[in-house]
Amino acid sequence: MTQEKPSSSFELLDAQIQRWIWGEGWTELRDAQERAIPAILSEKQDVIIAAATAAGKTEAAFFPILTTMLRGEAGHGLTVYISPLKALINDQFGRLTGLCETLEIPVVPWHGDVPSSVKSRFSKNAEGVLLITPESLEAILCNKGSKVPQLFAKLRYFVVDELHAFIGSERGKQLQSLLQRIDIAVGRKVPRIGLSATLGDMRMAANFLRPSGGEAVEIIESASEGGELRLLIKGYIEPSSLNGAAGDEAPPPSPSEASIVQQLFKTLRGSNNLVFPNSRAKVESYTYALRKLCEREQVQNEFWPHHGSLSREIREETENALKARDRSTTAICTNTLELGIDIGAVKSIAQIGPPPSVASLRQRLGRSGRRKGEPAILRGYAVESEINARSHLMTQLRENLFEMTAMVSLLLENWFEPPRTNGMHLSTLVQQILSLISQYGGVSAGRAYMELCSNGPFNNVSKSDFIELLRHLGDQNLIQQDSSGVLLHGEKGEILANHYTFYAAFSTEEEFRVISGSQTLGSVPISTALSVGDFILFAARTWRVDAIEEDIKTIYVVHHVTGMAPSFNTPGGRVHDEVRQRMQKLYASEETVGYLDETARALLNQGRQTYCRLDLHSRTIVSSGGSTVLLFTWLGDGANEVIGAMLRRYGLTPAPCGPAVELHGTVENIEALPRYLIELAREESPSVESILSHTFNLAQEKWDWALPESLLKKSFASLRLDIDSGYSWIRRHAEKILNRHRY
After folding, report:
1. Positive or negative, the Cα torsion across 39, 42, 47, 53?
2. Residue 228 CB: number of other CB atoms within 10 A?
3. Disulfide check for 653: which of 96, 451, 604, 664 has CB 3.0–4.6 Å away?
């Protein structure tokens, strides 16, 4: 290894690993690798390695880990690598095998597609590097409970990849619990190594990696300088009235979509790119339109779909096309290609519509500009409807363009949403109680509370709440207590805990498999009626439905020349306060935005003119008709939901409306809105019970159905509501609204 600068960390590595690095032609270690090697070799602390995509995080972790394993006096020991995606496990298996084969350290993948014979061999001699998902780790603890201490006795490290993808989610809370339970089983704290994109608050990430011990986690953020960024947001105007397609023909793309397709075709062909249209249905429609355009122009197809409902074979076909060096490929994708699956370098990222979050946009952009000397390229496409006499006020404000522009401006300032780590996730706690019973064959209430709550990841659950939960689970026959006080599965709990779907902490949509001949194309959630003879668009091709077997959730199709996009349920992102407040700054500003094209600049000016015309700088309540008003808060979704929920008690019906809360009611209670806000402001800080007293449909997570109503409300509020921000806004603005109740 001919180094461009001295490296003390390189000398700390095992000689075999040094030779492998030389053989790969590396001239130097990257910043994250230099700093991570001595920290991980200490074997005494938890470490987070935070860097952009393709900054060498995997090597930063595994060079020192493998060095430690090679120095083991009683064998190599075990390292458990945990990934959110099976595809990422398969990717890392290929990446690590080449290095580990030379070191004679086994690498074992473990997920649903891995043969049982491979798992059985590993279980007999648990050494090497185990690549696994949280769900498979859950299955091990449930099904091999008595053997868990022996199975993980030689465990030296946990490596959690894509740490940021777990934070604030059901799977994340499950993962924290699994790590804690294994620590207890082996009787020691196993060092945890988190690999992550850089987050807005890395200390929060540290507290996630090691609950109640985050202050001791060493955080290594790559000091590598970002390269050049080339950026353009193009604006499009959708005509207000469109004629639909007749008969069985697939609805043609709207004029704006057709223009975007032409632009993508013109600018992306001849290079590798990723296009994010924000939904699976849009992935299908854009890929289909681009492939049809390739056929019309008689050129080779370069456009491939990638989303979670496609079969593994089809997704891998797209991934392999991106990695191939002999052709150009553009993937139209959802966030399935946002995480760290190796797809090689891409030239540019195209974002159609506002991204789910600034953090998501940053992760996507990290795929571009990875080759030395090449810029990262981001193309944004903002679509706004043509304004007519019936246009909604948010259309007149050009909300989509302003939200996208606000997110990009925050990205340029290196701001992104801090992870939300205060969620109770009581749904996952239900699962973990049942899982703990499976692991031990029964557990006392005191031990369950200690492992999961007082010393575990659910440390914001009080004893009284835990007791209430246990009683409710008993009432539902999920658990029972024997004469000695040991908690066991109830009849219903035993059935659920012994089904393969139990291992996932999150719920999945009920989907139908789509089969053509002997090939499974993937699966699709059907939210609209579907009949034999209908046409669907899937895997960027059109199919006729030949048969539907509801009992086995299967659709049989044959290829056809027409089709229509299936209906996918795609929840949007949760917008942060900071994004909405940046939007207001953009509305109030007169400064030009240099990365907007001519149409986008015109849309920006239209939005600003509407903002000034309505005096939204100082005005909060704006009429949208006799019985409807918009309450402009310029807050995020969590705070707006609080304000809307509190106003329900007055007979108003709230609806989310971007930076505002749209309120529907009678003329009388709409006119009384200023008085209602004054009354709310004079109350003590509201309780969760009072905020959600008139709100229904709170069950959002897999096991929420098993919660008593009081705990369901607490869990929902902790995950979705920003009570402090919402109530503070009411108190700040109530008197001003009363004094200025102009409509």
Report:
1. positive
2. 10
3. 664
Output the six-digit token pair for 351: 């974002």
389-to-393, 396, 399 alpha-carbon distances in Å: 11, 10, 18
Give domain 426-503's CATH number out of 3.40.50.300, 1.10.10.10, 3.40.50.11210, 3.40.50.620.
1.10.10.10
pLDDT tens digits along 703-739 = 999 999 999 999 999 999 999 999 999 998 887 765 6
Is residue 641 very low, low, confident or very high in pLDDT (cuts 50, 70, 90)? Answer: very high
The average confidence (pLDDT) of the chain is: 88
Q: Which numeric CATH code is attached to 229-388?
A: 3.40.50.300
What's the confidence (pLDDT) of residue 529?
Answer: 54
Q: Where are the domains of the chain?
A: 10-221, 229-388, 426-503, 511-559, 618-739
Where does 238-383 have alpha helices with state H?
A: 255-268, 280-296, 312-323, 358-365
* Candidate ranges 189-193, 197-201, 556-560; pick with highest mean pLDDT: 189-193
Query: Per DSSP, which regions of 607-677 are E strands?
Result: 621-623, 628-632, 653-657, 660-664
What are the pLDDT digits (tens) for 392-433? 899 999 999 999 999 999 999 989 888 788 899 999 999 999
Domains 10-221 and 426-503 share a fold: no
Query: DSSP characters for 299-318?
Result: ----EEEE-TTB-HHHHHHH
* Greater model confidence, 308 or 508: 308
With CA atoms as reference, report the closest residue to 562 among 538, 592, 578.
538
Distances (CA, A) of 678 to 268, 636, 644, 681: 55, 22, 15, 5
Which CATH superfamily, name and number, covers 10-221?
P-loop containing nucleotide triphosphate hydrolases (3.40.50.300)
